[in-house]
Amino acid sequence: MKTKLVLFFSLFIFGCTLPQSLRKTEWTVPEVKEWVNKNEKYSTWKGLLLYRGSDTARHHFISRVMDEFVWFDIKRAELVVPEEKPYSTQSSAPLGYYYVDPKQDFVRVKDYDH
Predict the structure, then answer these.
(1) Does 48 reside within a domain?
(2) In a domain, 18, yes or no
(3) Most buried of the four, 49, 67, 80, 103, by CB within 10 Å?
């Protein structure tokens, strides 16, 4: 019993210490824009998100700031993506299709070179 309690509290504390962006995957458009504004200070980040495709419920994006990957899932009702592509969870599928600029209403900026 003591071991289970220690394990539970260890996992709880570990979960609380993770950066919010590692725990959060479902985002709203305003939240993504706020995240972009906060992270544009990093010189290694270009301010773009990689569009990974869309499924029946969400549009999927990914970005990397320093050594942190952040996944963004935005409900289809909140965002219109003119050039929709299928979202794949296959490991052999490309990571994404093209880059978008969230500050310019997620407009396509450039292609993703696999």
Answers:
(1) yes
(2) no
(3) 49
Which range marks the domain in which residue 56 is found? 23-111
Per the prediction, the chain carries an average pLDDT of: 85
Is a pLDDT exceeding 70 seen at residue 42? yes
Give 73's strand partners: 26, 60
The residue among 40, 43, 64, 70 whose CA lies nearest residue 112 is: 64
What confidence score (pLDDT) does residue 89 get? Answer: 86
Domain total of the chain: 1
* pTM of the predicted model as reported, rounded to 2 decimal places: 0.76
